[in-house]
């Protein structure tokens, strides 16, 4: 079950994210420097939590208007990540339908999004800051399968960039990066 992959992925994500020091560095996530990517994570985390809890989405404006990366961003990101793991670490969070804003979708898809946020954006932050992100083979496979399944829709919504061609024999994580619009060989 993918829920079991969340805790180790979240731990590694936090290790990398909280070690970031240059908020102006570019990331492989198109259109985002580190500060913008952290803002993205802090903005959408409450939406994912609401979906996992089957609650209404948080009130507020658009991501572009949010300025969530203050002096306490590390503590805020740690708390949000721990809460996401607590919510999506329970099997019931993955069952049935939920809503992400006004969109109804399988709860398992939202759970896959949470894992993808930790793994893909963890890699973005690692690359931007000269760190390595350790991803278990199981998490890499789960993220690849999710990215491949949702890739076309995610690209049409601007969530993923254009697919990056990666050899079929490449490791699952490289294929996940390519399917999500990231070049596995990206460097700043």
Helix content: 40-55%
User: What is the spatial order of strands in the main beta sheet?
Assistant: 1-2
Based on secondary structure, the structural category is mainly alpha
CATH architecture: Up-down Bundle
**Pattern of helices and strands:** HHHEEHHH
Number of strands: 2
Question: What is the end-to-end distance?
Answer: 35 Å
By DSSP (H or I, 4+ residues per run), the number of helices equals 6
The average pLDDT value, as a whole number, equals 93
Summarize the structure.
The protein is 55% helix and 4% strand. The chain has 188 residues and is mainly α. It has a single domain (3-179), classed as Four Helix Bundle (Hemerythrin (Met), subunit A) (Up-down Bundle).
Report on the structure:
This protein has 188 residues and is mainly alpha-helical. It has one domain (3-179): Four Helix Bundle (Hemerythrin (Met), subunit A) (Up-down Bundle). The protein has six helices and two strands. It has helices at residues 3-19, 34-53, 73-88, 107-128, 137-156, 172-179; strands spanning 97-100, 103-106. A two-stranded antiparallel ribbon has the order 1-2. Helix 2 runs antiparallel to helix 4.
């Amino acid at each position: 079950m993918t829920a079991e992959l969340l805790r180790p992925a979240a731990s590694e994500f936090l290790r990398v994210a909280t070690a970031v020091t240059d908020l102006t560095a570019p990331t492989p996530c198109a259109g985002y420097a580190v500060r913008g990517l952290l803002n993205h994570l802090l903005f959408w985390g409450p939406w994912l939590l609401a979906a996992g809890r089957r609650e209404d989405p948080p009130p507020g404006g658009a991501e572009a208007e949010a300025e969530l990366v203050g002096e306490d961003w590390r503590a805020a990101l740690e708390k949000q990540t721990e809460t996401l793991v607590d919510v999506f670490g329970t099997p019931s969070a993955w069952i049935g339908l939920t809503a992400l804003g006004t969109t109804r979708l399988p709860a398992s898809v939202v759970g896959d999004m949470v894992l993808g946020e930790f793994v893909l954006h963890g890699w973005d932050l690692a690359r931007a800051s000269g760190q390595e992100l350790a991803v278990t083979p199981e998490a890499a496979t789960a993220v690849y399968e999710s990215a491949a399944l949702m890739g076309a829709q995610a690209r049409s919504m601007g969530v993923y960039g254009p697919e990056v061609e990666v050899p079929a024999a490449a490791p699952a994580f490289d294929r996940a990066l390519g399917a999500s619009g990231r070049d596995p060989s990206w460097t700043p």
